[in-house]
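Subject: Protein record for review, amino acid sequence with backbone structure tokens
Why sent: The fold of this protein is of interest and is recorded here as tokens.
Notation: Tokens come from a learned vocabulary of local backbone shapes, not from coordinates.
Attached in line: The record itself begins immediately under this heading.
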Amino acid sequence: MTDTALIFVGYQEARRDKKSDFYLRWMDLLLEGASYLLTSAREMGYKVIFINHQEEEGPFAPDNPLSQTVSELAPLENETLIRISKLSPFFRTNLDQELKGIQNIVVAGIPTNLTVRMLVEEAYDRELNIVLIEDLCYCYSEKIHDFTLDDLWETRPWVDILRLDDFFR
């Protein structure tokens, strides 16, 4: 059993659909690296967890196809999908239970400044070792994305913020 989990946050179809209010223009570029990371993590035996935003209605409603994890990263039967309605992936979810025995997490996700940041901060407070893959995270503003990464680096010095290429070195 591995002591490492890969956690994908917010990689949902609503962020890829050009008609969606949540469209992220860099999504296709992010997916190339995310697919590579997922394949590698599966080969290394990491636990894989997906965290998806959910709302009662609209593009993130459970029955809306836009709320689904992007098809390139579709969870396998033995992988975990956690649906959240708040920024915190730990709030009223079973994430703590899913992370039992896990000491290290690798995080990639959208948006950097919201759920990704909250996940990193709360995992840090739980004393997990964290690697944030910066080029597999993004938000709707490069300025806010960069500020969030800088602030995490300044305030959480034990979080490793790496580019995907550096993660595999």
